[in-house]
Amino acid sequence: LTLMSELRQAIEKEQLHIYYQPKVSVATGQVYGAEALVRWQHPKHGFISPDEFIPMAERTRVIKHLTSWVLKQSFKHCAEWRKRGWELTISVNLSAKDLHDPELPDVMAGVAAAANIKPGWMMLEITESSIMTDPERAMEVIQRLHEMGYKLSIDDFGTGYSSLAYLKRMPLTELKIDKSFVVDLLKSENDAVIVKATINLAHNLGLQVTAEGVETQDVMDKLSSYQCDLAQGYLFSKPMPFEDFGAWLAANR
Ligand code: G
Ligand code: G
Ligand code: NA
Ligand code: MN
User: Fold this and answer.
1) How confident is the model at residue 132 (pLDDT cuts 50, 70, 90)?
2) Is the pLDDT of residue 81 over 80?
3) Residue whose CA lies nearest to ligand 2 atom number 15
4) Fold annotation for 3-248
5) Contacts of 236 (CB under 8 A, 6+ apart)
6) How far is the centre of ligand 4, averaged over its atoms, from the C-alpha of 1 (Å)?
7) What ligand is nearest to the CA atom of residue 51?
8) Which of 51, 75, 101 to mutate to test the pocket of ligand 1 (most atoms within 8 A of CB)?
9) How many other CB atoms sit within 10 Å of the CB of residue 136?
């Protein structure tokens, strides 16, 4: 049995789980939302990182099932938290393949209706490179998702190819600064310059900014001096299962 065929069955066998990592307001410390990150608990090989199985899934139609499953689960969880009065914005990662699938908006409409969530509660993370492989086609899907009310975020900003011309034309809510620029913010003058410039660029385009990979209070203070909007990282919490996130929220709200 290949890992690929096992992945195909992992969903039915309930081997996939979604972990949540909080996003926190830099200015107030308030919890803004969380990013949904998929995990594969393989019975023999143990934990397998999405960095390994997402690219594998993307080479086949499995990615479509995987994305639908992640959307279904995270929408359900979001609805559950909203019912408890927690007004969180939940971020979900889309792959390049998803962005080029003209059926995605219809799939999402079905999933949102079934879970009884408003699209405005969800933020969809897309990477620069996934847009740039076929910008016109990606733009059509992005435009439709925006019209449905979904928030859109550019993930890993600064690490891929991107065109500022497309950035300007896209209906975005957020830029997410990649952790590779954030972790050494205090040690690297170049990283500091990049982070500061990215925050200013985003704000001048009317976008909010999340810095990921925030591990220390010193980095948090620096981000605060740069007027960064949101932070995500081990300083607050590692990604955690649905139940643990509920407990974390109750303790940290
Ligand atoms: O979870 P971790 O911190 O290891 O994430 C590794 C990578 O996997 C990140 O690039 C993240 O964006 C990606 N990833 C995590 N969950 C999903 C998912 O549900 N769908 C897609 N397409 N990518 C994901
Ligand atoms: O590619 P994407 O940015 O979506 O993935 C986020 C990844 O970053 C996940 O694998 C997550 O586990 C990881 N991560 C989250 N917070 C931190 C952090 O504070 N430091 C580091 N080094 N990695 C982090
Ligand atoms: Na992401
Ligand atoms: Mn990222």
Assistant:
1) confident
2) yes
3) 233
4) TIM Barrel (3.20.20)
5) 21, 22, 24, 214, 252
6) 32
7) 1
8) 51
9) 7
Return the HEC string of the chain.
Answer: CCHHHHHHHHCCCCCEEEEEEEEEECCCCCEEEEEEEEEEEECCCEEECHHHHHHHHHCCCHHHHHHHHHHHHHHHHHHHHHHCCCCCEEEEECCHHHHCCCCHHHHHHHHHHHHCCCHHHEEEEEEHHHHHCCHHHHHHHHHHHHHHCCEEEEEEECCCCCCHHHHHHCCCCEEEECHHHHCCCCCCHHHHHHHHHHHHHHHHCCCEEEEECCCCHHHHHHHHHCCCCEEECCCCCCCEEHHHHHHHHHHHC
Q: Is 201 exposed, middle or buried (0-12, 13-18, 19+ CB in 10 A)?
A: middle
Instruction: Report the nearest-CA residue for atom 24 of ligand 2.
Output: 213
Instruction: Give, using CA atoms, the residue closest to atom 12 of ligand 1.
Output: 93
Tokens representing residue 187 in the block: 């040690």
Reported as a pLDDT band with limits 50, 70 and 90, residue 205 is: very high
This prediction's pTM:
0.97
ipTM: 0.95
Confidence of residue 147 (pLDDT cuts 50, 70, 90): very high
Per-residue confidence (pLDDT) for residue 1, from 0 to 100: 72
Q: Which of 114, 110, 37 is nearest to 70 (CA)?
A: 37
Give residues with Cβ within 8 angstroms of 234, minimum separation 6.
Answer: 214, 215
| Percent above pLDDT 90 for the chain | 87
Distance from the alpha carbon of residue 22 to the mean position of ligand 3, in angstroms? 12
List the structure tokens of 247: 């407990």
Q: Where are the domains of the chain?
A: 3-248
